[in-house]
Structure formats: C-alpha cells, structure tokens
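writing this on my phone so excuse typos. first protein, seq and then structure
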Amino acid sequence: MFRESRAYVDESMRLDGGLYVLAAVIVPDNRIAEHPAALRDLLLTKQPRLHWRDERQKRRLQITRAIALLSLTTVIVIGTGLTPAKQRRARRKCLERLLWQLALLDLRQVLMERRNAEGNKEDLDMVNALRAQQALPQDMHVEWGDPLVEELLWLPDVVAGIVARAEMGDDTLRNLLLGEHLIERVICD
C-alpha cells in the first residue's frame, strides 16, 4: 500500500498530562522533494530548524496551516498513563505499536529522529527483538536521522506536538490538519 513511501517519526511527551505521543508522517517517494522547500519557507531568519516546543502560539498556527496544505498521511500512537519513571516503557510500547501499524501499511523505510546513543541503541534493540519475534518484516529498514540535516523530520515533530496539545484539551490546531490520520491509543503503565 505504501511500499513506495517513507515514514518520518518523532515524539512528544507531556509528563504533566501523562502522555507520550509517537507520530509517523508518511511521505510518498514522489513527493519527498516537494516538502523540504515548503518547510524551509517557514523558517525565521537564523532559525536552523522547526522545533514545535520552541515556537510561540502565533507561529504554531502559521506552521499548522502550512503543514495542513501538504495533506499528510499520519500514524499516531498515543500512550496514556505515562509517569516520569516509566518513560522508557512508554516509548517501547508506543514504538512497538507504531512499527506494527507501519508494517501493516507495507511501509519499508522508516527514519526516526535521533536521540542520544543510548536511546538509539534501545530503539534498535527493540526493532531487532520485534524482527526476531517475526512481528516486523525483515526488510523494514529503520534508521535514525538528524533533524538539522533531514528536514522531513520536522513534520512528525509538528504533528506530535499538535496531537499532544489536543490531548491536553486544545483541539484548535488538530482540527486544521488535513489528510488521513490513523490514531491508536495504548496504556503505558
């Protein structure tokens, strides 16, 4: 279904709301060249990248409207019951569900926003464990990228931020998003 596409993945956490949001934005290979230019047009002078948590409300509205024009396809896993002591568990549960959903969509290329070396290794161990259990296809290629280099990683950052905000009670920006959105919930505790 999406074999000729790539998924770009990032997260958003709201410890005060017990939320862990993992968002994948699916970009067809034939549109990969279009999106970075649209994203770069949103940058302010001397701004190296879009990062949702650094933006003010007025800019968030502007960014959301611009992203909505791309009519994105997303897969979003919302983990509830997050506690500070169980952040790793929440990520594992959400990542497992997200990768499973991407595999069901026949997606084989996944680029996740890099974390630190330990975090990337934990994710890779999870991917390898899922492959060993035959819960993921052997040909699903998962790698980690730097958002300063790979602009398409800005998309899931924005989407995860919008969804987390909506889960905290403000649907204003989520209601502006166009496209197809698969949203799943998992309990993190």
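second protein below, same order as before
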Amino acid sequence: MKAKHRLKIIAESGFTLVETLVSVVLLGLVLTIFLTVFTQSAAINKTSEEVVDASYLAQKEMENLYALSQRTTDYRTAMEAAGYTEVEEDSDWMYYTFHHDDPETEDYYTQIRLEKDGADHLHRVVVEVYQQNDDAQQVKMQNVLAWGQEPR
C-alpha cells in the first residue's frame, strides 16, 4: 500500500518553488521595463508641452512687436506703452523683459533684444522665452522689423 501512495505523490503535477520564483522574477522584469517606458513617455510629453507653450508665447510676442513696428516710429515709447520693461541698454541693443500674467503662461517670462540702429530702418529683434522657476531658455526666435518708417 505504501508503494502505491509514493507513486501517486510522484505522479502529481504542479509548480515547484524554483518555477514559481523564476516566473515572479520574469514578471517583475517585464513590469519594470513597461513602467520605465511609460515614465519616459510622460516626461517627454511634458517637455514637449512646455516647448509648444513657450513657442506660442514667443510667436505671440513677435507678432505684438511687428504690430508695434507698423504703428509707430518711436520704439522706446511703444515698448513701454505695450508693457515691456527696459532692463538694460548697451551700444547696440535695447533689452526688455515681459512677465506673463495669464494663469496658463505665468510660468514663463520673455526677454526681448531690439537692435538700436538698424540699416534702412531694419532692426533685428530676438525674442527669448524662459521658464520662471529655473531660468531655462525654452525658445528663441529672431526676426528683422522695419521700425522707424512712417506708419501705414
């Protein structure tokens, strides 16, 4: 009777401890890889969203500057009237800054460089958008505006 009982135990199939441990380790590795991919994807999406927001702000400021250049010949007065704060001035450039009050864009500020004496009333303009919390430059746009001609 004991011999039949032993054969019955040996013939039963099931997972051993080693097989169970191997499957748990493999499952853990697969889950770790997937979590890493999802985390990287979320970080890339956030960075992409920040660049798109900053690009929008830079384009908006460039369009504002273009509109100002078409309305007036005095860029100093126009910049101050539009809410830009003069930060510094050197022999070639005027430097302005603008802080955004909109809740969606309050994490950014804009710096503008405007060339003082452009040839044939053409002034180079550089718009840079920075992240407020770490002063990291997000976007930089450059253009040439015909400032100083009679308004149309």
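The CA atoms of residues 110 and 129 lie 5 Å apart. thats all i got for now
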